[in-house]
Specification:
One of its GO terms (cellular component) is plasma membrane. The protein is about 75% helix and about 0% strand. It has about 475 residues and is mostly helical.
């Protein structure tokens, strides 16, 4: 097919039709999967749809003169770009299994039920996750550890796990955005060439109001919603937990180790795996009865919990559902989803299909408000199409940087806008690497928690509103020869 490029012999640039064909295929196949399978579509049908989209995109670029070898090389780069995410996902799966075996998650749930009330539970979840994420600089680690425990507490308190997941993600992404330890925060500042602390200050102008609005909504929902489990019901479940596990602050040592390693800037996969292994070894000594019931060999129990997950058969449905999960195996569907989505997005980016659609949008954005709206639409659209927040960050920052300078708009405007539009909206897309991760570790489908990610919805909206109103829009001198 490489010879179909034309008389010049070399590849030709894509047309608008070329760029639209893979996009339309994505919309049709994803929508069809959701229509036929509902929320179960993420258990395989959406993954198949994404792989088919990869093949369609490959056919388009080969029609334009590129070889299959080039497509393969692009696919290799796509997979290598998510190597860290793959290791994090597998490590989180291992950690959840090991922390259930060791009693770390049951202890978090036990103490959490005693401290947290159903009436203000959602607001507390958002605040707790915000503080933790700001301390360690990782929304993924926060959701995969503290978030898992908070969703477990929600199950025991008989409050909505979907709203709880929304609160966890809202807090996790607030902390991630405002932490100098966050790799996406540092990357965004570097892409736009601004100081990271100046970038964080400008992000606060949208992040803090967005989180405050979400916090109030979580309070209102909690105060006006169903009362949750009765004291007798929670007392019964707490008694059951303490009968199964030895509940002690010692069980929280794996969490302390994880926070310490994260603050010391240890690579996330290494920190997570170290916390998982430590928990497994600790559980052999602190929870001998649980370990023995799970497997006749302590070493086998730890390995099995990390590989295929922990299983509990207490006879109490809520407790068994809370604790019977985890393991690297539980992340394989999510990895399949991420690999398909990122490969599709990388092919579209590297062979010019995305730029073919974005360039006309840049030229059509005449005013500042429309320019801000275009950046948001591009970043969010890339989260949907490319399935990866890094593409949604890097490409708009690269494409719009010169246009912001030409119009006399300070680069801090673009850094804030790309973070609000690219990073924050990534967990709202089920097949995006972030959305897939959050759905997998929290055990709540992305489409179920999406309406309650108030911070993730309000933050980009405020950025766009600022663009139209001129509020907190900083200007610089226009370079010679350019006009606004």
């Amino acid at each position: 097919m490489a010879g179909m490029a034309g008389e010049g012999g070399g590849p030709r640039p894509p047309s608008v039709v070329d760029a639209l064909i893979p996009m339309i295929t994505l919309v049709v196949l994803i929508a069809g999967s959701l229509a036929v399978f509902g929320l179960d579509a993420l258990d395989g049908p959406v993954q198949v749809a994404l792989i088919l989209c990869v093949m369609v995109a490959a056919l388009v670029v080969m029609k334009n003169g590129h070889s299959w070898a080039e497509v393969e090389e692009s696919s290799k780069r796509a997979v290598s770009s998510v190597t860290s995410a793959i290791f994090i996902l597998l490590s989180v799966g291992a950690l959840i299994g090991a922390w259930n075996l060791s009693g770390t998650i049951p202890t978090l749930v036990y103490y959490g039920i005693q401290v947290l009330s159903a009436s203000w539970y959602y607001a507390a979840c958002a605040l707790i996750c915000g503080i933790i994420a700001m301390s360690i600089g990782s929304s993924w680690t926060t959701a995969g550890t503290i978030g898992v425990g908070l969703v477990g507490i929600a199950t025991m308190l008989d409050v909505s796990t979907a709203i709880t997941a929304g609160a966890v993600i809202s807090g996790a992404y607030l902390g991630d955005k405002l932490s100098p330890l966050s790799e996406t925060t540092v990357l965004t500042a570097q892409l736009v060439k601004v100081d990271v602390y100046e970038h964080i200050k400008r992000q606060a102008w949208t992040s803090i109001p967005a989180f405050a609005l979400g916090f109030v909504l979580f309070l209102v929902i909690g105060l006006t919603g169903p009362p949750g489990a009765t004291e007798a019901e929670t007392t019964s479940e707490l008694t059951a937990l303490s009968d199964i596990y030895w509940i002690t602050p010692i069980n929280l040592l794996p969490l302390v180790l994880l926070v310490y390693l994260s603050v010391r800037k240890a690579p996330a996969p290494l920190a997570l795996m170290a916390a998982a292994l430590f928990a497994g070894v600790l559980g052999c000594f602190t929870q001998p009865q649980v370990t023995q019931a799970f497997s006749d060999n302590p070493i086998k129990a730890v390995w099995q919990a990390m590989a295929t997950g922990f299983q509990m058969s207490s006879g109490i449905q809520d407790i068994d559902q809370l604790l019977s999960r985890g393991g690297m195996v539980s992340m394989l569907l999510t990895l399949w989803l991420i690999i398909g989505a990122v490969t599709f997005g990388t092919i579209l980016e590297e062979f010019g299909l995305i730029n073919r659609l974005i360039d006309p949008l840049v030229k059509a954005a005449k005013g500042t408000g429309r320019l801000f709206l275009t950046v948001f639409a591009s970043a969010f659209g890339l989260n949907v199409i490319a399935g990866d927040q890094y593409i949604a960050l890097v490409l708009p920052a690269r494409v719009f940087r010169a246009e912001f300078a030409r119009r006399g708009l300070a680069p801090t405007n673009l850094s804030r806008l790309t973070a609000d539009s690219g990073t924050v909206t990534s967990p709202l897309v089920p097949w995006n690497s972030c959305g897939a991760f959050m759905g997998a570790v929290l055990g709540v489908p992305t489409l179920a928690y999406l309406p309650f990610c108030f911070f993730n919805i309000f933050s980009p909206l405020l950025s766009v509103v600022y663009g139209f109103t001129g509020f907190k829009i900083e200007r610089v001198e226009v370079p010679d020869g350019d006009t606004d």
